[in-house]
Amino acid sequence: MSTSAGPKHVYEIFIRTTPEKLWEAITKPELTKQYFHGSSVKSDWKIGSSVTHEIDGKPALEGKVIEIDPPRRLVTTFAARWAHSEEAMKDRPSRVTWLIEQRGEACRLTVIHDDFEGETATYKSVGTGWNPVLSGLKTLLETGKPLVIAPSPA
Predict the structure, then answer these.
(1) Is the peptide bond prior to 71 cis by the omega test (within 30 degrees of 0)?
(2) Is residue 4 part of a domain?
(3) d(CA 96, CA 66)
(4) What CATH code is carried by the domain that includes residue 95?
(5) Each residue of 29-84: pLDDT tens digit?
(6) Are 146 and 132 in contact (CB under 8 A)?
(7) Is 23 inside a domain boundary?
(8) Which of 9, 28, 75, 140 has the fewest CB atoms within 10 Å around its CB?
(9) 70: exposed, middle or buried (Cβ count in 10 Å: 0-12, 13-18, 19+)
(10) Model pTM?
(11) Structural domain tally of the chain?
(12) What's the average model confidence in pLDDT over 85-101?
């Protein structure tokens, strides 16, 4: 677990799947595109390697693999590259930890996003960004179909 003392976001979700299928959904571009804000993840998944989430061929997120233990644990850095937030692009990279634990017919997925330099633009932005990602991941794995979320009413 993280030892960072600063602000962090912690999410826990139970998904009816296997650790192997969950791992694949986190690390395969054809799957992330269906639930991770339309982004395709790219990496060779080795310690020190880059991790990029691309939308239409442009990076939306960039990072590096810090730890990897398939299908149980993945730790990467996280640097915002989405164009709608110039402030977030100025933030130094934070850290995302994915923890997968088999619990009978389900997996408990814990996602910890931490190592922020205070309540940065990235910290504020991802606070609401992870919920649709994790809901979409759960829906995709349990139903085989992407989750379609309508925009909020104005």
Answers:
(1) yes
(2) no
(3) 10
(4) 3.30.530.20
(5) 999 999 999 999 999 999 999 999 999 999 999 999 999 999 999 999 999 998 66
(6) no
(7) yes
(8) 28
(9) middle
(10) 0.92
(11) 1
(12) 93
